Amino acid sequence: MTVLYNLCDIFDNLCQQTTLSLPPLKHNYLKIEFENSDNNETVYHGQAPTLPFAASEVYDVPMCNWRHLTVEHADCKAVYEVTFDISSTNLSFCPGDTIGLIPKNLDAEVDFVIDHLDLTSIVDCSYTITVDHGQKGARTPAHVPVKSRLRHVLTHCVDIRAVVKKLFLLALSRYTKDEREKMVLEYLCSKEGSPAYTTHILNKNLCILDLFAIFKTCKPPIEVVLEHLPRLLPRPYSIVNSALANSNLLKICFSVMNIGNNRKGLVTGWLEQIIKEPSLEDLITNINLKDDKVTLVHKVPIYLRKNINQFSFPEVCTSPLLLIGPGTGVAPYIGLLEQKEYQGNKDLGMIWLFFGCRNPNLDFIYKKELENFVSKGVLNKLTTSFSRWEGCNSKKYIQESILQNGEEVSKLLKEGAKVYICGNVRTMAAQVKETLVKCLVEYTSNTQEEAEKFISNLQKNKRYLVDSWN
């Protein structure tokens, strides 16, 4: 693991000069016992954790195709489209639906934890977990099996990349031999060190992988780690295509970016690795012999998610649709337009798409498809924004494009248009809402309060739908 900076050097003097207010420490309440056994069963206390918003069972589906949607360039995030063969499943989906993709922690990162905690001799042994019921509220975390093997749990059950919370830091400090390292961990979880925790832990997404690399004498019992690590959760992805065109194929697209600390996204990095550099494990476990040919078939565990946001498109609708989505936020709209084209360009009213990216020459994903939809009248209007292109006019961002077309947008809203927004909840989605309110204030008789209420009513009546992520 790469140590990005030394927290001990940053806070050494401060820790020695400050009286710390520490949160109350809960004592370790899990006890784990190992045995040499051939038993590979995984047993939970009660039911196994359910999959979030599951609308189907889990299927291991082969990745049958992929393509690079962006140009390979230093100023451009890589965006890929992958296609899964779902012919052996009973999955049925519509535009706007999403799948959950079940991840696993990277072998190298799991091995790092195993090595750091000196677990090599027992990591593949069967274990049994018991609880000290003398402590109030003591229980085994629902996502941690009471019987299993540590390698399985560290790979599939707990999120070793989760940002470390303050109580976990305090627990870790109790198993840190170096007094200097211990003081820094205590400072970071104290009331006095709260700004430092936000700056150096929360904002930098530090996890136990980073802490074990920085605080080398911090070696907690595995019970403490299992008590505090959260569940490794599935990742949701919008479905790109329409099942009407081919019900045996399911497509998703995703961007690959550095999330900090020299890491890529857990799932997106894994999928990219499958595409670019299949591992030896892939070669051994996913090889397929058929018709005297050797092919590599990568299987990925997925399931269909319930459409809890009701981000779905009407089968028959004469009202206009305003589609707003930068980057990979365009994904669900490709499926809608593909379905409309398959149905013969009927039963839907005007469709207007606002799309944004950095540079049309680098990351304008699905450009050919969108231009084809426009030429065939499937997509009635396409308005683009390019935030980092010298040839761009004043419309650098989607919200600026909306405002520039504010009069027509306001008119469509008043005439009953439905609004769909797909993108980053922290920035774009909120800004688009503010922009639509501005349009209504400027181009209709609405006051600020009336415009805000109008948008709120659209949301209540399911005419303003958001599919967003962090």
UniProtKB/TrEMBL annotation:
InterPro entries: CysJ-like_FAD-binding, FAD-bd_FR_type, OxRdtase_FAD/NAD-bd. Residues 48-314 form the FAD-binding FR-type domain. One of its GO terms (biological process) is homocysteine metabolic process. The keyword Flavoprotein applies. The keyword Phosphoprotein does not apply. Its EC number is 1.16.1.8. Keywords: FAD, Flavoprotein, Oxidoreductase. Its cofactor is FAD. It comes from the Eukaryota. One of its GO terms (cellular component) is cytosol. PANTHER family: METHIONINE SYNTHASE REDUCTASE, NITRIC OXIDE SYNTHASE-RELATED. This is Methionine synthase reductase. It comes from Parnassius apollo. The lineage of its organism: Eukaryota, Metazoa, Ecdysozoa, Arthropoda, Hexapoda.
